[in-house]
UniProtKB/TrEMBL annotation:
Similarity comment: Belongs to the glutathione peroxidase family.
Signal sequence segment: 1-19
Keyword Ribonucleoprotein: no
GO terms assigned for molecular function: glutathione peroxidase activity
Source organism of this protein record: Saimiri boliviensis boliviensis (Bolivian squirrel monkey)
Database matches in CDD domains: GSH_Peroxidase (cd00340)
Upper lineage: Eukaryota, Metazoa, Chordata, Craniata, Vertebrata
GO biological process, one term: cellular response to oxidative stress
Cellular component per GO, a single term: endoplasmic reticulum lumen
Pfam families for the chain: GSHPx
Name of this protein: Glutathione peroxidase
Amino acid sequence: SFPVLLCPFSLLLRSCASAQETTHISVSLVVNVASECGFTDQHYRALQQLQRDLGPHHFNVLAFPCNQFGHQEPDGNKEIESFARRTYSVSFPMFTKIAVTSTGAYPAFKYLAQTSGKEPTWNLWKYLVAPDGKVVGAWDPTVSVEEIRPQITALVRKLILRKREDL
């Protein structure tokens, strides 16, 4: 089932998906997803591959369904989750449907837009967030996950090396 956002905002940016999960510091790729977008198939497949390759201890995709752009996420939370799990076998955290722009925007997306200087203008915007909560990159859906994978991998490597030094 969908996690309910019970965590303090700062913990969300540290990949705290729900109150039930253990809080840990990791790199996050925050994405506003939509099931019926032309970019959906390519993105979901690549996001799941990224999660499989890098997650869940040092990296997590955080998926936020949104129906603001082209009404391409019309279903309810249970149907959205079922679609993502059944069609793409997603293992990354899926959140409840939210607004990502305008006055009703979820606070995490307000923060992402303000700190990156880039507000989502369509589905499948991607924000790369470092373990300290800093937004280190933002990309629109025309930029593939494969194109930004080197930046994500470098940030995860940096985190792993820092954790090893702390041992």
